[in-house]
Amino acid sequence: MKRSDFRFLHRLRVRWAEIDMQKIVFNGHYLTYIDTAVTAYWGRLALPYETAFHILGGELYVKKATLEYHASARMDDDLSVGMKCSRLGKSSMVFEAGIFRGDKLLISGELIYVFADPQTQTSKPIPEALRHILLIYEAGESVVDLKTGPWSEMKSLAAPLRSEVFVDEQEVPAELEVDELDATALHAVVLNKLGQAVATGRLLQPQAHVAQIGRMAVSKPLRGGHLGQMVVESFIEAARKRGDREVLLHAQCSAEGFYRRLGFKSHGDIFDDAGIDHIEMTLQLA
Description:
Elements: E1 8-13, H1 29-44, H2 49-56, E2 59-69, E3 78-88, E4 92-101, E5 104-116, H3 128-138, E6 144-149, H4 151-169, H5 174-177, E7 186-192, E8 197-207, E9 210-218, H6 227-241, E10 246-252, H7 256-261, E11 265-273, E12 276-284
Parallel strand pairs: 9-10
Antiparallel strand pairs: 1-3, 2-5, 3-4, 4-5, 6-7, 7-8, 8-9, 10-12, 11-12
């Protein structure tokens, strides 16, 4: 088993609380590492577990979990946990796991899950939609689609996600979340293969040759998986095609690093918008 066997790798750092009296990771924690990676795997498939599996009409239950120990992890090790779905049956699926320090394999494992009715916990066939998502992901294909269009076409997809992120999570007043600028903006929505909106944003043109990105929202369980980057990059390309020379945005300070990694630079002082600290950032296109 090698790192290159896995399309998906989840990184984590060994914490003090996970070390035993032998000064190595207690053996049981490796299952927690793998379970954490499984959760992140569903995120990489753009499936918010709770809502996605409600749509699919079932839950996954562990039938069997086996580990083989090759070497030990120690305090402060940076680990990569590889996960892949290696086999699909009628109602069961097999995941292979590998825990690596660098290229060195420390732990290999196998988990067998059964798709079942959450009320009766009796098995049922894996839905074709889920089977399709797993197969295309492991084959190296995209598990999301990006759509752009006017508010009249995108509102039904974008508005619920924006309300979930800004109103419910960040406590922005609902009357401030939707404004008259939506009608003139270009909107983008990332959809998973179940048709759920998982990321969105809008692109304005406040003045000639200047584009402004706003209302960036990503489903909370899926953050850090490049969905927001897809939206931003689609807007940068749209701005470039229409001849804009600069892309402007007002970033929440907690997201400043995200935009910096995409080439944006900060300007001016931090300011308050709807009770949240923001900073102006720009990207030059010319």
